[in-house]
Amino acid sequence: MKGRLIPLCPRFLYLGVWVGRVPVGLVCPLFLLEGLLLAVLWLEKTRALRGQRPRPFLPLGAVFAFRALPPLVFLEVEAEGVKLKVGLW
């Protein structure tokens, strides 16, 4: 039985802030987050090869977990005319 393949379409994590009617946003491509997690895994593997005590293990599938999610909003808050929205697109 084969596992479900993860789509490799471009995905983004975004942060949107609306002050009144003026939007300010920050978009982070998902591959940057995945690259950072892969670098951390690589550093942990080299740490174990050098004979140091390894830290708790992170499975490789967890690096690409955001790719399996549909576009969704993680956090949406509005207070005193300021709206904050964090999500995956």
Protein described:
With 89 residues, this protein is α+β, with helices and mostly antiparallel strands. The protein has a domain at 33-69. It is 27% helix and 35% strand. It has two helices and four strands. It has a four-stranded antiparallel β-sheet with strand order 2-1-4-3. Strand 3 and strand 4 form a beta hairpin. The longest helix has 20 residues, at 30-49. It is elongated and about 55 Å long. The two termini are 30 Å apart. The model has no long low-confidence stretch (mean pLDDT 82).
Topology (elements, then pairings):
Layout: E1 12-19, E2 22-29, H1 30-49, H2 60-63, E3 72-79, E4 82-88
Antiparallel strand pairs: 1-2, 1-4, 3-4
**C-alpha end-to-end distance:** 30 Å
Strand order of the largest sheet: 2-1-4-3
Rg is 18 Å
Share of helical residues: 25-40%
In one word, what is the shape? elongated
Ranges where pLDDT stays below 50 over 5 or more residues in a row are: none
Continuous helix count: 2
Category from helices, strands and their pairing: alpha+beta
Strand content: 25-35%
Total beta-strand segments? 4
Mean pLDDT: 82
The secondary-structure element order is EEHHEE
Major β-sheet annotation: 4 strands, antiparallel
What attributes does this structure have?
89 residues; alpha+beta; four-stranded antiparallel sheet; 2 helices; 4 strands; 27% helix; 35% strand; elongated
Compact summary:
The chain has 89 residues and is α+β, with helices and mostly antiparallel strands.
